[in-house]
Amino acid sequence: MKIYKKLSHIGVTAILISAFPLFSFANSSWVWISETRPYDVLPFVAAATLIIETAALNLSLKLNNWHKTFVGVLIGNLISFAVPYIGYSNTPPYYDFPLRDILERGPFYTVGGAFLIITVAVELPFMYFWLKKDVKNKKLLILVTVLVNVVTTAMVALSERLLCEGHY
């Protein structure tokens, strides 16, 4: 029982720390310096993410069904990418604007610490239930899913920050 209490404290702390930049720049104006925005980079990094996650799961878990793994990774990523955008579009001051305007003018990079937490929270249970009948080692499935999501999320965050420049 104590382990769950510790894990919940760690999870809440991680969420609060990842939200800190949103509050620390209150009433500051964000300016994009580059012409490239995070949504311009999204199709390319999404394709790379799908390939990397599918290959990592198939090769490390020795799965023979690439199509099933790819479809699971695709659905899991679509859900995990949609959840933060739905969250942004339903919170002030963004709820009055269409998603395209939020992405164009939003003062944020798409991928960060909170995005990683959401991605793992969505994709881990989804991929577990999607592939649990096809794998022998379910602990390895969990480990690989978490690790590959950390790696691909870090890759996407780095790509956004290198290609899209902005500041307060």
What does this structure look like?
By secondary structure, this protein is mainly alpha-helical. Helices cover 73% and strands 2% of the residues. The chain contains 6 helices and 2 strands, in the order H-E-H-H-H-H-H-E. It has helices spanning 2-24, 38-61, 66-89, 99-105, 113-131, 138-163; strands at 31-32, 166-167. The protein has a two-stranded antiparallel ribbon with strand order 1-2. The model has no long low-confidence stretch (mean pLDDT 81).
Sheet/helix structural class: mainly alpha
| Helicity, as a percent range | over 70%
Q: What kind of sheet is the major sheet?
A: 2 strands, antiparallel
The helix-strand sequence is HEHHHHHE
* Continuous helix count: 6
Strand content: under 5%
> Could you name the ranges where pLDDT drops below 50 across 5 or more consecutive residues?
none
Shape field: globular
Q: What integer is the average pLDDT?
A: 81
Termini separation comes to 44 Å
Rg calculated over all Cα atoms: 17 Å
Total strand segments: 2
Placed side by side, the strands forming the largest sheet appear as 1-2
Task: Describe the secondary-structure layout.
Blueprint lengths: L1 H23 L6 E2 L5 H24 L4 H24 L9 H7 L7 H19 L6 H26 L2 E2 L1
Antiparallel strand pairs: 1-2
Helix pairs in contact: 2-3, 2-6, 3-5, 5-6
